[in-house]
Structures are given as structure tokens and as C-alpha cells.
Amino acid sequence: MRRGEALGRRGAHRQLKQLSGGIRVFLGRSSVAVCVLLICTISLYSTIRSDGRPNRSVKQVNVDELWETAPNDGWRPSSAPRSKWPPPPNESNGYLRVRCNGGLNQQRTAICNAVLAARIMNATLVLPELDANSFWHDDSGFKGIYDVEHFINSLRYDVKIVESLPDIRVNGKAKKLKAFQLRPPRDAPVSWYTTAALEKMKEHGAIYLTPFSHRLEEEIDNAEYQRLRCRVNYHALQFKPHIMKLSNMIVNKLRAQGHFMAIHLRFEMDMLAFAGCVDIFNKKEQAILKKYRKENFAEKELVYNERRAIGKCPLTPEEVGLILRAMGFDNSTRIYLAAGELFGGERFMKPFRTLFPHLENHSTVGPAEELAANTRGLLGSAVDYMVCLLADIFMPTYDGPSNFANNVMGHRLYYGFRTTIQPDRKALAPIFVARENGETAGFEEAVRRVMYSLEFGGPHKRVRPESFYTNSWPECFCQMSAKNPADQCPSENIADLNSRLQWEETDDSENVQNSSNRTESIDI
């Protein structure tokens, strides 16, 4: 395997061991800049032999095959329950309000967690609030972005959802039920919801959790809970019809001329400031980034060369172009750019545009008037999300802290293992540093060695820090002709399940008038 792979020859092992021993002494005396250079040298040494040739042969990848979905080994998406999953009781323990802060995709993750939290507490969920004071300064709200009727209807066998808190009567007067405000711990365990939160809910009748970003742990040892998250994320959360129509129009126009790739080019002010990657900019631009960082992020000393050496800097547009060219994509490749305003302007885009001139974004495709009216703030992010989801190939340039990239990758995996090119920035960093220092021999082969070792969107084990929302395998997937019974596909998918339950509900109401609460379990 690429990461941690042993060197091909014992001699190389001994040399690397000796070199590592020397490093420990050297680090005690050397400056930061020299240390970083040494890190890059070692990283290159681990993949290049002394004669300059690669340590192992490059895995052959046919670029034309990347336009198709990744091999799946018989796996397919499946988030229907596989054990008894009773519908929510008629009487809940109270009402749950949440305020989802952040951008569109951070809010999307919070909505999934809110539904799961409501299920855990047997609570009635109030339609989640989307923070109007988020990065986008957009007050569209849940109803302006998502199809509310579809959301509530899709989850009716999982949780009860209402659009607002009910009125109560106090001293003969009607007034809105007031929710008790709580601040959940970050990545709170399930036990917090079944104890502290539930206690306050029963005491007050309703609780208001704010903020609600990353407030429920991701790794839960309960596959049914995880599958509920997938039902929310990939089935219930559907954008409003006008967003879907606009997104499909853009995709159809791009695909009319053949395959197209979508790239999330995260070379924007907020992410560059967050990452601490400022040295490549002029003094005026550096001052802007430092000011933004000071105002928005915790104070921390960040050294650009160190950050870049460990893969913490977003790829530049030129680096993205060089990666694609090394992989074998030619200048006829059509690329859709999902990005805000790129920091540094055209001088950073020009090298990329020279390599790949067929670039589009949501402002250059389709009727200008309609796009101008519908692609601002959260709406624009929603359109970009759908185009990236439906693209033949998706390439994020800065995953990890990017909720957009993580969610799109996870959705594409669930959507049928659609090809994703996910650069390993840490492995690529020394290769780019060497090129900048004039060492261009073997550059493209070194890039291919890194890039051709990727999964390209196929099923793979989730390893931290990879998020559940980036990779919900195996919980939300099943395997045809599975050897492990736990991986066997259930007899029904989500659509079949809802149809059957709806029929059972109708049949029950026709045969048992005024019947008592439904208590039967879903056993599939």
C-alpha cells in the first residue's frame, strides 16, 4: 500500500534508518526552514531510489475508465432498517428545537444529527432552524432551501416532525410553548441526550439546543442509528424543485458535450486564513488574510512551510492543473468549478486556465437572469452541491475541514460509487516543493505514483480522521451475495419500505376504526 509501504530493498531500509537517526540530532540544532526541507527530502526518499527511478512501478490506470463509476464488488447503497425498528409512539417526551450554524453543508450534517437526537430521546422534532448569521449571511431558512413536505413525509416512520412549537394555554390565554435553552457539548455522546437533555425536556416540555454544529458524536456503535443518518442525508433532505431544476439544467448543458468533471477549488480567503497558508501572496494580501484569521479563528502561530509539508494547505489552481495533466487528462477536458471568489485573482487562475481552458461555473452556464436570481448564498451552494454530485468525476482540493467536499464525497459514494479523485496533499507536497526548486525530472511520474494509488470512490474502510458523512460504508451499504450475513441486502429498499408501511397504515385504519396506538415493529 502507498501509505507506510516498506522500501523495496533492504539497503534502502538501512539508509532510511540511518538517515532518521541523524535527523533526531539535527533537529535539535536546526532552524524551522531547514527542518521542513528535510521532511520533504525524506518523504521523497521513501518513494524514489538513489538513481532517481521510482521505488516501485506505477499502477496503471486508464483515465478513460475514471469517467465511469468505481468498481463496487457487489455493494450497493441501503439505509433501510435491518432489525426491528418501531415507528415513533403517539406520545413523545417533548419537543426538540435546534439551531444549525455554519454554511449549507455544516447545517446539513447538523440536521441529520438533530433527527437522530430526536429519535434517541423519543422527541418531536421542530423543523430545524438554519442560522441566518452564518458565513453566507443568508436568511433563506429551511423552507427556502429544502422541500419541507418531502422531509417530513420521508421520516414519518422514524421521528415526528412539526413546523413550529405548539400553543399552550396559561391562565386561559394561548401562548407559544417556550423551550429551555441548552448548549450541548461538542461531539456529545448518546448518553448526554438520554440523561441531561432528556431530563430538561421532560421538565420543560421542550428544549432548544444551540449552537448545534458537531453536537452529536459521529462514531456510534449502533448501525441502525447510522442508517437513520443516511436516510436523512440521502433521502429526506431534498432541495426545493426550483433548485433541482436549475441544477439539472446546468448538468444537462455540460453533459451535452460529453463527460465533465467538477472541482471544488477551495482557494478562498476563509480557508487560506484558517489553514495559515499566506506566504505565497503579496504583502497586501497577506495582511488581509492575517486580519481575517485574527477576527475569525483562535490565535495560533502557523508556519507556512510546515503547514504545507504536512498537507495542510489547499492546493493552488496551478497544482490542480498539474495533477490532472500528469494523470493523463488533456486540455479538452470540461471542468465545472464549484468555488466562491478565488483569493489572489486571475494570476493564480491563469496557469490552470492555460492547461485546461474549458472551465465553467454556475455563473457561466445557463440563462444569466435565472442564475443571478438563484445562485446567491445558500442557494448557490446548493446548486454547486447538486452539480458536483451529478458530475462524472469530482475532485476536492481541500477536504478535511471542508464540509462541502466531505458531504459531496459521501453522497457520491452512496449514489453509486461515482468516481472521486481525492489528492493526498501530504504525499504531493514534497513533489511540488522539489519542482519549485528546479527538480523537474520525474515530476509527472511521481505525481502519478501518488494519484494512481487512490480508491477513486470505491467501497473502503473508514479510517479516522475520515468522517462518517464522507464514508458511510459499510453501515449504509449492503452486498449482493454477501458472505457475511450482516452485509446481506434487505428485501426492501427505502422506497419499497415506505410504500409497504404506508399500505399497512392505510389497511390498519380501514379495518380497525379508532384503533389504539400503533405499536407494531418494522422487521425487515
TrEMBL record:
Membrane topology note: Single-pass type II membrane protein
UniProt keyword annotation of Transmembrane present: yes
Pathway the protein takes part in: Glycan metabolism
Region: Disordered, residue numbers: 505-524
Residues that span the membrane, as ranges: 21-45
Signal peptide: none
Keywords, comma-separated and alphabetical: Carbohydrate metabolism, Fucose metabolism, Glycoprotein, Glycosyltransferase, Membrane, Signal-anchor, Transferase, Transmembrane, Transmembrane helix
One of the GO biological process terms: fucose metabolic process
CDD domains, per the entry: O-FucT_plant
GO molecular function, one term: glycosyltransferase activity
Cellular compartment(s): Membrane
Polar residues compositional bias, start-end: 511-524
GO cellular component: endosome; membrane; trans-Golgi network
InterPro entries on file: FucosylTrfase_pln, GDP-Fuc_O-FucTrfase
PANTHER family for the chain: O-FUCOSYLTRANSFERASE 1, OS02G0726500 PROTEIN-RELATED
Family: Belongs to the glycosyltransferase GT106 family.
Identification of the protein by name: O-fucosyltransferase family protein
Organism: Stephania yunnanensis
